[in-house]
Automatic annotation (TrEMBL):
Residues 73-197 form the MotA/TolQ/ExbB proton channel domain. The keyword Endoplasmic reticulum does not apply. It comes from Alteromonas aestuariivivens. Its main location: membrane. This is MotA/TolQ/ExbB proton channel family protein.
Length: 221
C-alpha cells in the first residue's frame, strides 16, 4: 500500500506531462504484447506447417502443398507454395528461388508490422519527459522570482524535484519500450532466417528429386 501511495504521489507531482507519457507507455506496451503474441504464433505455425510439407515434398504431392499454402496461416507455407507454383511453370532452380524470395518479401512486412513504432514511442516518451521538465523549471524560476528571499532556496529545490519527476517517468517508459523493440527485432530475424533455411531445404530436396528422376529416365532409355 505504501508503494502504491508513493507511485500515486510521484505521478501527481510530475505535472500535466505525466499523462501523455502514460498514454505513450500504454500504447507501446499494447503493441509489444500484440507483436509477441503474433510472432510466437507465427513461429509455432511455421514449425507445424513445415513438418507437414516436408513429407509432401518427398512424395512430390505438389497440389497438396499449394492447397496447404492457400489454407494455412503459416508464413512458411505461403513461401514454399510460391516456389512450387513457379516449379510447375519452370523447372529451373533460379526461377524457383526467385519465386520463394518474392513470397518471403511479401511475408516479412507482416512480421515486422508495428515493431518500428516502439522505438519511435520510446523517443517520444523521453522527449516528453524533457519537455515537461523544462516547462516545470521555467514555471519554478518564475515563481521563485516573486517569492520571499528567505524561501527562495527551499521553493527552488522543491520545484526542481517536482520537475525532474517528468524526466524520470519519461525514461521509465522509454527503457522497457526499447527493450521490447530489441527483443521483437531479434525474434523477427530468427523467424525470417528459419523460413530462408526451410526454403533452401525445399529447393535442394526438389532439385535432388528432379535429378534422380532425370537419371532414372535416362537409364531406362
Amino acid at each position: 500500500m505504501d508503494f502504491l501511495n508513493v507511485v500515486v504521489r510521484f505521478f501527481q507531482e510530475g505535472g500535466p506531462f505525466m499523462f501523455p507519457i502514460a498514454i505513450v507507455l500504454a500504447l507501446g506496451l499494447a503493441i509489444a504484447i500484440e507483436r509477441f503474441v503474433f510472432l510466437g504464433s507465427a513461429r509455432r505455425t511455421n514449425k507445424k506447417a513445415f513438418a507437414q510439407i516436408e513429407p509432401m515434398l518427398s512424395a512430390r504431392q505438389f497440389d497438396k502443398i499449394l492447397q496447404l499454402g492457400q489454407q494455412n496461416r503459416a508464413p512458411v507455407s505461403r513461401v514454399i507454395a510460391a516456389g512450387i507454383a513457379r516449379l510447375k511453370l519452370s523447372p529451373r532452380r533460379e526461377d524457383v528461388e526467385y519465386a520463394m524470395e518474392e513470397g518471403l518479401m511479401e511475408t516479412i512486412p507482416r512480421l515486422e508490422k508495428r515493431t518500428p513504432y516502439l522505438g519511435t514511442l520510446a523517443n517520444i516518451s523521453t522527449l516528453l519527459g524533457l519537455l515537461g521538465t523544462i516547462i516545470g523549471l521555467i514555471a519554478a524560476f518564475s515563481a521563485v522570482a516573486n517569492a520571499d528571499p528567505a524561501e527562495k532556496a527551499s521553493l527552488l529545490s522543491q520545484s526542481i524535484s517536482v520537475a525532474m519527476n517528468t524526466t524520470a517517468f519519461g525514461l521509465i517508459a522509454a527503457i522497457p519500450l526499447l527493450a521490447c523493440h530489441s527483443l521483437l527485432q531479434t525474434k523477427t530475424t530468427e523467424i525470417v532466417d528459419s523460413m530462408e533455411m526451410a526454403g533452401v531445404k525445399c529447393i535442394n530436396l526438389l532439385m535432388s528429386r528432379q535429378g534422380v528422376s532425370a537419371s532414372t529416365r535416362a537409364s531406362d532409355e
